[in-house]
Amino acid sequence: MQQDGKIFIGKSSKPEYLDLKLANRHGLITGATGTGKTVTLQVLAEGFSDAGVPVFAADIKGDLSGIAAKGEPKDFLDKRAADVGLTDYEQKAFPVVFWDLNAKDNPPGVLEGHPIRTTVSEMGPLLLARLLELNEVQEGVLNIAFRLAADEAMHLDDLSDLRAVINSVGQRAAELTTKYGNVSAASVGAIQRRLLVLEEQGANEFFGMPALDIRDFMRTTPDGRGNINVLAAEKLGKSPRVYAVFLLWLMTQLFDKLPEVGDPDKPKLVFFFDEAHLLFDEAPKALLEQIERVTRLIRSKGVGIYYVTQNPLDVPDTVSAQLGNRVQHALRAFSPREQKAVKAAASTFRPNPDLDTERVIMELKVGEALVSTLQDKGEPSIVQRTLIRPPSSRIGPLTTEERTRLVENSPLFGKYENRQDRESASEILAKKAEQEAAEKARLEQEKQAQESSWTKVIFGRGPRGGMSVGEQVVRDASRSVMRSMVTQVKNAILKSIFGSRRR
């Protein structure tokens, strides 16, 4: 059923394909829990890999890791393959590179993936300001901190570096105001508090060295298959802010660093963001605007983005409008919001006169979906009720031992595992503080030594007769007083004996 330049998705009244030439026009996979979204993601990732397209997938639930293992023969899979006309169906493993944002929390000896890091400098003040929801004045102080670090040749590797520089900005406010602009003490405190919140959410694990080389996401195997990069993201569900930081930074890095390629024959890279609501829930307006902008423009870099979520309403309209390839699994409609979601999902498809789309969405069985993909000149196909093909890899997660073994045998093993701690801003400022403290202590010692020398000059031992100058002064004064007293007594005695000479 495979066709050159296309990925076989499943079968409706006809085979349904995703055209690789239009795969960078992005997509949306939605459906209630347990309806088959993850299997659909797995099928598409397998198809992209076989076509030589690298894939990135954030694995929030932890059950996508099985794509690295050969599937197990099962009757229901064989039946599904026969039902969709997949005559060449076989079980096989796919090349997977595992990544992890919270490696420090793993038990000893357990590796869930290569650590992912970037530096605060690479993140930049604009993204951090938007992430931290800083106001204009606070963003100005953050920009001053980055400028000061650049002017004084200080690397901003992790959040401790940024906190150190922000603290230095606060201490040097009077000096820096004339050079860079006004520094508000209240803004310094606000930035420090918000950085503390990020640290509490585990963001400091994301910042540091060595920084991720984005080209490592775009590797292919010697036999021409694209690597499937799987991010261990189960813990990130508890830290949506860190998750949003990572996704936004990653998309921005690709957007900034990849060259324009227009519409290639196949994507250079495809992203699947599972549980996409974590990206959008409570996201600040500036963050949503950045996501919308990158989603709209990044296709010209040959990158396709596919959002995977339970409810189509999870994705803002401004972003949803950019998603041309759609797979809609079953939705439930027990509440007014769910009923609204069903209507919204139905309205996004090109109508099929033979289907009541809104009704079918609630009737779909596990493994079925409504499918509409872009075709020909980019117009969406008529929506079709489709039975999704079975995956060739394992359905379900790897064991801890299997995953650790794959990480250790990865061609990237050793490149990111050991955290590097070069001399950066926090060390430079700490060393500067030590030098200033040492200089202050030296000057204090010199002052004390000088005062001691003067005291010795005045009260210490002198060169003449072993007397000091002070002792000589006291002795001479005493002699003078004594001579004066003797003279006065002598005169008084003579006067009493001889009396006055006047007659």
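[next item in queue]
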Amino acid sequence: MSKAGERIELRRVISFRSYVGLGLGAIIGMGWVVYSGSWIEAGGPVGAMLGFLVGGLLLIPVGLAYAELTPAIPVAGGEIGFSFRAFGPTAAFFSCWFLAFAYTFLCPFETVAMGWLLEKIIPVIQTPMLYSIGGDSISTSSTLPGLLLGGGMVAVNLLGVRASARFQFVTTAAMLVCVIVFATLAFARGSFANFLPLFAGSGASTAVVPASILSVVVGVPFWLSGFDTIPQAAEEAGTDLRPRLLGLAVMLSIFLGTLFYLLVVGSVAMAMPWQQSVNLDMPTAGVFRAAFGQEWIVRLVLGAAFLGLLSSLNGFFLAATRVLFSAGRGGLLPRWFGGIDKKRKTPRNAILFVGLFAMGGPFVGKAILDPIVHVGSLAFAAAWLLTCMCAIRLRRAEPRLMEPHRLTQVGVLYVGAVVCTAVVLVLLLPGSPEQLQWPSEYGILLAWFAIGYVCHVWQVRRGGMSPEEQRYQILGERPVSARMSGPSRR
């Protein structure tokens, strides 16, 4: 058996409010500015709101699994530690590689969106097209903002997790203030008559109502993804933070995220008749220009979208780097990913790796990245499913580990597993409207796992760890021999 080496640890400084900001900021993003019209068109105002409400309720069992496991196993990379403890290194690798895909490739999607958003806010900055990929125009004005944003995100995260956490809290709080302002105006000056008809579609209400709700529910897991960024940074919780508060931050993020989307849909529906608003460009901003003629409100909405983009990018960036760092430290991927800045205790190498992806996104544009986001939805659902199974397994295998943090009956965890399985099947079953496309999206998925397998095998053959050392590196539990050889307490 190889002797356990020193375990690299990250600085413990994140507060409870910063964890809530991390989860909520990652959930919100800026998609609500673009897609609110699509939600209302698919379900009608009340159908869309009920769709988000039902979707949020369905995610509660999943959130409870995270809320139990995160304080019980507070390590970097979250699900890597959960799956390693419950099922061993193979499950930990699959969990790691699913999450690495989902988080890493969401970063370039955000940097691509930055250029597009700034061109909407300040049209005068638009420059001529340089080239086109998949029908998407690439120009200096669409590329430079995302490139600068990616570089800025690398700088913020290299400064330390305290800087990243503060940045997350400030941007999320400022965005929520903007949203509350324009929502208040919508409810004060709008009309509930604009909600009619309450649901989309035609025919008997017994068929229209569930169809309207279901058409929105299927997409809710993607829009509420982000609460799972909290366990990725659980190892960096402040020393005075009670472990149970990590679980509370997870659940609070889901609750506030659901409430946010209900508020946005309600505001858009109140402002003007929804049959008109769904045809506007960026409905969440367009309705205020069309209904009230208030350009400052439009700027406020776009400003909130800008802040949401920053918070979601920072949240997913932080999560991606912790997953890769944990996998490198634990020998699941090349040890290079486990390198840190010794002064600031930040995962330097993982930050640089994810930063390259983020800064490369603007050069390929939305056309190439859209399929990646679809595959990312599958990656999130698979990771959630594995987490629910880990919670069920550890309830039986290590009841003492889970007992102090138990929040619900084991049956609820099975419900979470069923919900996640349903999402995975919707993305994989032939004939499903959300099925991954062949060969593009299935090809991306297979290529990603081929790369991961090669990296994993290379690391194992180059210098694999003993089971005891790997457990120590991933979970922080010292091998028995190391504990016995320590200083005597007598």
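[queue empty]
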